[in-house]
Amino acid sequence: MNIKKQRQLHSREDDGIFSNTTALEKGLTHYYFGDGKGKTTALIGLLIRALGHNLKPLLIQFLKRHTIDNTKNGFFMGEINFLKSHMEIKQFGSGKFVTPDTAKQKQEIASARLGLEFAATQIMSEKYDVVALDEVVNAISMNLISIDDLVKTIKNKPDHVEIICTGMLKYKKLVDIADYVVGFNCINHPYKKGILARKGIEY
C-alpha cells in the first residue's frame, strides 16, 4: 500500500475529530506574486487550513532563517515559532538580508540550489499533501536558481500534491502552469509613514 492510500485510510477519531478526511485527490499549483504585503501570510493560512483537515504540509523557505532572537544571522518569525511544533519546516537561507550583490556569494547560491533539490525530492516522495515554496521566486529573480528547474519540479509532481510558490516578480512560465495566479499589489503601506515592521503583524 502506498503512502497516499495509507493516509486515506487514517481517521482522526483519536483526536476527538470524527472525520474521514483524506489526502487530496487532485493537487493544484498556486503562484502568489507582487510587491504587496500578504503573500507569505496567505501561504501560512493555507497551511493551517490543511493541518485542520488532517493533510500533511511541508513548508520550505528560501532566503529566510528563523532564530529565537533577532541576530545578524536570522530573525524571529512569529509564524515559524508557532508552526514548528505542528508541521515540518525547512529553511534554506543564511539569515542575512540578501541583495543582488550579496546573492553572488557562493553560500547563498549553494543554499538556494540545495533548497530546490530538497523540494523536488520531498515532492516526489509523496509523503506530503501540500508543499509550500516560500520566496522561491525571489531566489529565481536573484539568479540563485533556475526558473526552468522550478517549472520542471512542478510539472513532474505527483497528481495529489498541492504546491504554493511565492515571490515578488511575475514570470510567464509560472503563470502558464499555475492554477491559482494571484497578484498582491501595494496601494498603501505604513512604511511610507515611517512605521517600521511590527511584532506580531509583519513578523
The gross shape turns out to be globular
Distance between the termini: 41 Å
H/E topology pattern: HEHEHEHEHHEHE
The secondary structure category is alpha/beta
Can I get a quick summary?
The chain is of the alpha/beta class.
Question: Could you explain how this protein is built, in words?
Answer:
The protein has helices spanning 3-8, 39-52, 78-83, 106-125, 136-141, 147-155, 172-177, and strands at 29-33, 57-62, 88-92, 130-134, 162-166, 180-183. Helix 4 runs parallel beside helix 6 (147-155). The protein contains 7 helices and 6 strands. Strands 3-2-4-5-1-6 form a 6-stranded parallel beta sheet, with helices on both faces. With 203 residues, it is an alpha/beta fold. The protein has one domain (22-193): P-loop containing nucleotide triphosphate hydrolases (Rossmann fold), CATH 3.40.50.
Annotation keywords:
about 200 residues; alpha/beta; Rossmann fold; 6-stranded parallel sheet; 7 helices; about 35% helix; globular
Secondary structure elements and pairings:
Blueprint (H helix, E strand, L loop, with lengths): L2 H6 L20 E5 L5 H14 L4 E6 L15 H6 L4 E5 L13 H20 L4 E5 L1 H6 L5 H9 L6 E5 L5 H6 L2 E4 L20
Parallel strand pairs: 1-5, 1-6, 2-3, 2-4, 4-5
Helix pairs in contact: 4-6
